Amino acid sequence: MNYARLAITILTLFFLNTFAKAQVTVHKMVSAGYTYQNQSFGELGGKLLFLKNDDVIYRLGGSALMGSANSKFAIMPKLSADVLFNFQKDVDFYHSYYFLIGAEGTNKYVAPKIGVTLFGMLDLTGGYAFPINDLNGKELKGLNINFTLNIPTVFIHDMFN
């Protein structure tokens, strides 16, 4: 069975169930970052942030990982799903950081991850990748580290006006 399809199906059902219960605000973000997965990859893409309240936030993203594997340039599509949570009450300052649980998948590996995010904009996550296929003869498995900057499109729009 294809693990990437199974993970995407489970995450989609989870998010659809959550969104069917309440009114949700959606924010668009542009993301750029670095991923280490037995190789170094640059990442460029976008994310949707689903917000009902500021205790639990959901994000779905799509991006491209670009890097070199066995001296050959490669680009991989990547899908990600994250849940950000911080249950501190009545103190806005404590909502400057969130704990993050999520998963990411490419056509080469699937990786559950945990980490922290500052204002939902600066992420530092780590996990373990399970290989699906190899990339130019290199198997992408083991330690997975991500450092990502997520910039809301509203911020970009306001910056140029």
Description:
By secondary structure, the protein is an alpha+beta fold. Helix content is 16%, strand content 60%. The protein has two helices and ten strands. It has helices spanning 3-21, 153-159, and strands spanning 25-36, 40-51, 56-69, 72-85, 97-106, 109-118, 122-131, 134-135, 138-139, 142-152. Strands 1-2-3-4-5-6-7-10 form an eight-stranded antiparallel β-barrel.
Short description:
This protein is α+β, with helices and mostly antiparallel strands. The chain is built from 2 helices and 10 strands, in the order H-E-E-E-E-E-E-E-E-E-E-H.
Strand content: over 45%
Strand/helix succession: HEEEEEEEEEEH
Question: Care to count the β-strands?
Answer: 10
Alpha-beta classification: alpha+beta
Q: What is the gyration radius calculated from CA atoms?
A: 16 Å
Specify the number of helices: 2
Q: Which percent bin holds the helix content?
A: 10-25%
Strand order of the largest sheet: 1-2-3-4-5-6-7-10
Arithmetic mean of pLDDT? 85
Low-pLDDT sequence parts: none
Largest sheet: 8 strands, antiparallel, barrel
Overall, the morphology is globular
What separation lies between the terminal Cα atoms?
50 Å
